[in-house]
């Protein structure tokens, strides 16, 4: 079995699954997707990315509430509604309304701005943070329950093809790995 990964906006990937051009798509969060089934795979915890020179960077873990005074750099809601909604809900649960800073544009530009500009922070998926080169930026997990985003494999409704069944089996085995 060969798996080919396609990079495209979520809506485009979902439409291609709906049209039968793709067998499946990995997505974070659930979209209103008629005719599609969302199969839960894993949850990605979120971590804070902040300037290495900020006092909070000296801690191994930080409380989300400690970030209340810093602007949050995050994608516009229309670009990533699940991440934005998760971030805002987590901030509110921690007792504050996030101060929205300049939008998250690209990894490179946003992390460079965090590293060298006015103090600010952003959220990263923990697995991505583990491999992201980020000079003068630190990634810190949260002391409180970490906000997380659910990932799904989206498929057309109905019995899976043989190829898709093999992919589902591999995803389930991966999900069983601690």
From TrEMBL:
InterPro entries: LysR_subst-bd. Residues 3-173 form the LysR substrate-binding domain. It comes from the Bacteria. The keyword Membrane does not apply. The keyword Ribonucleoprotein does not apply. Keywords: DNA-binding, Transcription, Transcription regulation. PANTHER family: HCA OPERON TRANSCRIPTIONAL ACTIVATOR HCAR (PTHR30346:SF0), TRANSCRIPTIONAL DUAL REGULATOR HCAR-RELATED (PTHR30346). Belongs to the LysR transcriptional regulatory family. This is LysR substrate-binding domain-containing protein. It comes from Streptomyces cuspidosporus.
